[in-house]
Amino acid sequence: xxxxxxxxxxxxxxxxxxxxxxxxxxxxxxxxxxxxxxxxxxxxxxxxxxxxxxxxxxxxxxxxxxxxxxxxxxxxxxxxxxxxxxxxxxxxxxxxxxxxxxxxxxxxxxxxxxxxxxxxxxxxxxxxxxxxxxxxxxxxxxxxxxxxxxxxxxxxxxxxxxxxxxxxxxxxxxxxxxxxxxxxxxxxxxxxxxxxxxxxxxxxxxxxxxxxxxxxxxxxxxxxxxxxxxxxxxxxxxxxxxxxxxxxxxxxxxxxxxxxxxxxxxxxxxxxxxxxxxxxxxxxxxxxxxxxxxxxxxxxxxxxx
Amino acid sequence: xxxxxxxxxxxxxxxxxxxxxxxxxxxxxxxxxxxxxxxxxxxxxxxxxxxxxxxxxxxxxxxxxxxxxxxxxxxxxxxxxxxxxxxxxxxxxxxxxxxxxxxxxxxxxxxxxxxxxxxxxxxxxxxxxxxxxxxxxxxxxxxxxxxxxxxxxxxxxxxxxxxxxxxxxxxxxxxxxxxxxxxxxxxxxxxxxxxxxxxxxxxxxxxxxxxxxxxxxxxxxxxxxxxxxxxxxxxxxxxxxxxxxxxxxxxxxxxxxxxxx
Lengths: 305, 261
Description:
Chain B: Keywords: Endoplasmic reticulum, Membrane, Transmembrane, Transmembrane helix. Chain B: The chain crosses the membrane at residues 12-34, 115-136. The complex is a heterodimer. By secondary structure, chain A is mostly helical. Chain A has helices at residues 20-32, 38-52, 59-73, 77-90, 95-107, 111-124, 129-141, 145-158, 163-175, 179-192, 197-210, 213-229, 234-249, 255-279, 286-300; strands spanning 3-5, 14-16. Chain A is built from 15 helices and 2 strands. In chain A, a hairpin with an 8-residue loop joins strand 1 and strand 2. Residues 1-15 of chain A have low confidence and may be disordered. In chain B, helix 1 (10-38) packs antiparallel against helix 5 (104-131), helix 2 (46-64) runs parallel beside helix 10 and helix 5 (104-131) packs across helix 7 (168-178). Chain B has helices at 10-38, 46-64, 70-81, 87-90, 104-131, 149-152, 168-178, 180-187, 195-203, 210-227, 237-242, and strands spanning 138-139, 165-166. Chain B has a two-stranded antiparallel sheet with strand order 1-2. Chain B is mainly alpha-helical. The A-B interface holds A 16, 26, 30, 35, 37, 40, 126-127, 158-162, 184, 187-188, 190-192, 194, 218, 220-222, 224-225, 227-228, 231-232, 234, 237, 264, 267, 271, 274-275, 278-279, 281 and B 44-46, 49-50, 53-54, 56-57, 60-61, 64-65, 67-69, 72, 234, 237-238, 240-242, 245-252, 259-261.
């Protein structure tokens, strides 16, 4: 793979020339894994379309779609318009293309026109979920969170299985500080994805924020679950330490509960220490950073007030 | 028991057995593409989509309810199964049994199904019977009783011939069913050439009997959910977690990954 050092910049970035198959594979990987690295997609995609367009065959349409969305992210309206026009020529009556033109209008902040677009799609096909979700994102972009929440609730009443929507709703509720309802949404996600440690951790954080002894206990349990699912989740480890020490410091708990929670907290602290020791292995600053960790843990101790 | 083995002319193999295999296979492939062309879009209503998702959610609640706290599980179970206004109790969908006479789209679907599948089979079977008649084609490896003789040995008027020796028409039918796995290999699953699957669908009644099913499905889910209990999976999670040291393998690496390139 020939490397061409970009003149003017030292060792920071190299402009790399790739072959068209490699570019195509990279785009496919990003598409399948749902990455949002829009600048890279625009770079690679633009070159692929302009130079190697003929070699792509039928793949070119889905690449147009991917590049167009990335171009909207990077404010490259020229590129987005080109892709959209090509797609419109090829698929004149497609709802999917209409949704893309609606997205372009959204990017230009012409929300009313975009809404009209989506309403037209929904009139022809009431089951089209993409159009409904775009309408909700318009509300979110305009800052109308209460309306967005209401619409999203109605959407979820019809399409209970849409996990993306549940996650979005939980985020909206967290922004509105309605932690109880956010917890409900996260519970839906935990049920459908029982082995996903991130949902457990997020749920635990919401419960911790809600506060109250019961919620703290739940949060401790779910932090532990997240750790069990993925031993390397440092955030959950800290969360376990915090929730356990919080419960132990509360005046209303029985002695046994206090003892148990102090045990959990000290175990978590020892694991954190161990992790930092492993991280600092081989570096001269190891002793200092380990001491810093111990001090940090001490400062995080919840003292009885 | 050594029976006198018949020795067939090798020309039969060359000019009968192989051509019939080819013909059957090609006809199957053509049927697949024709069925794709004639396919009509199945339009699902919003209600059907919504109902199917509700059923999935209830099933997930039953299976994975143990991962959420007990209170949440009970809240959802109450929502579904409550006596007065639980979802499964309260929702009755309008049941319109889609009989072929009343529903025109079902009628055309059935006709298309017949035309693409049954008709070619009959036609080609008859043609093969007429062209390749008068001789024995192959022998099935298992013994058959005499009752099969008139069926499998059409055109061969020999009373004393073992029923295992069959005519070309039966070889054709053997092929029709036998090449099913070849079709899956070449055309992918769910292809239009898979006759036996289509015949199964026809036998199981109207394949699109969704409306009647919905009410029954709701009732079945209600019963299943009533029986489900909540066994919290997180009862002793801390003890299990602390039974061993955490595994930090791969958490720290000397180099941070330099972007996605």
